[in-house]
Amino acid sequence: MYKASSTLTLLLLTSLLVCPSAAAQKPFLLGMSAALTGPSKGLGIELYRGSKAYFDQINAQGGINGRKIAIKFLDDGYNPEPAIRNTIKLVEKDNVDCLFNYVGTPTVTRVLPVIKHFNSKEPEYLFFPFTGAQPQREFPYEEYVFNLRASYRQETWGLVHNLYMTGHNRIAVFYQADAYGRSGWDGTRKALKEKGLEIVAEATYRRGASFDESMKNQVEIISRGKPDAIISVGAYEACAAFIRDVRDAGIDVPICNLSFVGSENMLEPLTGLTKATGKDYTAGLINSQTVPSYEDMTLKAVREYREAMVKNPPPPEGFGKDYTPLQFSFISFEGFLNAKVMAHILKQLSMPQYQGNIYAATLSIRNLDIGIGTDINFGRGKHQGLDEVYYTTVSDGKFVPLKDWKRWSK
Fold this sequence. Notes:
Layout lengths: L1 H24 L2 E7 L6 H20 L8 E7 L4 H13 L5 E3 L4 H15 L6 E2 L17 E2 L5 H14 L5 E6 L2 H16 L7 E4 L10 H8 L5 E5 L2 H13 L6 E3 L5 H15 L7 E5 L10 H11 L19 H19 L9 H6 L26 E6 L2 E4 L9
């Protein structure tokens, strides 16, 4: 009897000693649903690679208070229904600590009701989706999402304003026929309306279109409006195909793309076509971005990012076999910054005043310096950390900062 009691006591004491240590070693698990296959796979793969590059550094240093950070990734092919299924699995079966790094408006907008539903039972939040759309920034879903990047309205307003100030007032829109495309279309329309203007022509394409597909019908529709500039709201393969066919039609006007396009992925086939034909398909391009240029070595975060990416983190396991990872890109840099802010939030969780409350820990962030020259701020009613929009154009085969719009004056 004494022996059994002693054994039980020893087991209880051992469990008290072991359990806290075991719990401390349990990794933070972030759930990511993104395009890892299909014509837009470069978006999800590069966002993942950038985040992993930062988390790998944190994990190599022992993690956060002994806990490492892991990303549980699932492929949705940039389609809504798989994104919904993935979200349910990540929350109910994988028990992720939060959702993170989702890619795309048509996917994110469809999972918002799912996230809201989960929150009726226990808190579940989506952090830093790769989309500038409005639904997750407005009632009734803004409470469940934290955005780091500027919105599409901010991007399109900036493009329209700068084009207008350089004499362009006949602006056409080419856009993806879904929630993403309509979000960019609506932002452009609103920005033009402020200046007493309207969209002079618009044409759409179906999500998932590849570079090999013809955009001649869309170009013909756009050309009827006699635009002096075009704003393109799409993914990289379709936008590259559109640019090709616009230039082949002899239309020589500035073509602007939003940050989501994937600048480097879009530029790659156009550069190849330029080398093959001798005709420059990379001229006259302007892309808005929601992160600074990764060429700006004066920024601490850029230096950290480039050093981390030199180690060349691979694509998600099981994906990207037919994809050549980019050394540097605006998307992987955004993923790197997403991870940097996420790690800071996770570190905050250990503070007594937050007691593991990730929502409160995020709202507490004020004037967080992550090395990009602009501080990160969240708060009650402010679930978007950054408002900066940057502009780039092509020079020497890559997108570089556009510092003077006067060169585009008519």
